[in-house]
Amino acid sequence: MKYIASLALFSLILAACSFKAKQKSSNKEKEQISTFFIAPYKVDCMGIAPMKCLLVRKSDTEQWENFYSSIKGFDFIPGNQYQLKVRIIRKENAPADASSFNYELIEIISKETYAPHSRSLFDIWGVVDVKGDNPLHSDCEQTLEINMTENIIMGKGGCNNFRGKIELISGTNQIKFTKVLSSRRTCANQTLEDKYLQALNSVDAYFRFNQHLYLISEDEVIIKCKRMD
């Protein structure tokens, strides 16, 4: 009788251990650990409503992608690029219009002030947004050519051409456009042209990602450009 009771107790212990092991395995399947690289500025994006998104990638060779969720425990400071260790937890019964995952900060692996090489600016850019206005929606072509060999900018404000000087602070992403002068024809889209040239004069930093260039004033993106083929 004692033997049978002991056997039954042993079977119960085995069953309990097996259940715990399966539970641990199930929990592991619901979560994973990943490394996130975080870009130095948020960008405008569209979730359920317009919002600001982090730009995230999982390696140096990947393209930046909009990140529509938040990372619990992570306080983002503009102008810094981060490498994070993040716990990704699958939600149960997540709403159809929400993320299927929760994200939690485990560790900040690195935090560095964004300091790109100035050669990343050297290109011809088409302007796609100036403080919320897309000039292309009004058939107004605006461009920006940046020549780092001569430290000059030139381009088209709408119907007038402009030209100016570049001032950079080495080892940072700080930039200023000075002595920006344009021709004086009256344009059909004069308001858009004036807005663009005024915005250029207030730029104090930049950020290039993928095929885009963002020009920044006081940590806010004020001009968005896309590389012209």
Integer-rounded radius of gyration:
26 Å
Ranges where pLDDT stays below 50 over 5 or more residues in a row are 21-26
The average pLDDT is 86
Helical residue percent?
Answer: 10-25%
Largest sheet: 8 strands, antiparallel
CATH fold description of the largest domain: Lipocalin
Shape: elongated
Q: Give the terminus-to-terminus CA distance.
A: 86 Å
Q: SSE order, as H and E?
A: HEEEEEEEEEEEHEEE
Class of secondary structure makeup: alpha+beta
Write out the strand line-up for the largest beta sheet, numbering strands in chain order.
11-10-9-8-7-14-13-12
Q: Which CATH top level class of the largest domain fits?
A: Mainly Beta
Share in β-strands: 35-45%
The CATH architecture assignment of the largest domain turns out to be: Beta Barrel
Q: Please tally the helical runs, counting DSSP H or I stretches of 4 or more residues.
A: 2
Count of distinct structural domains: 2
**How many strand elements?**
14
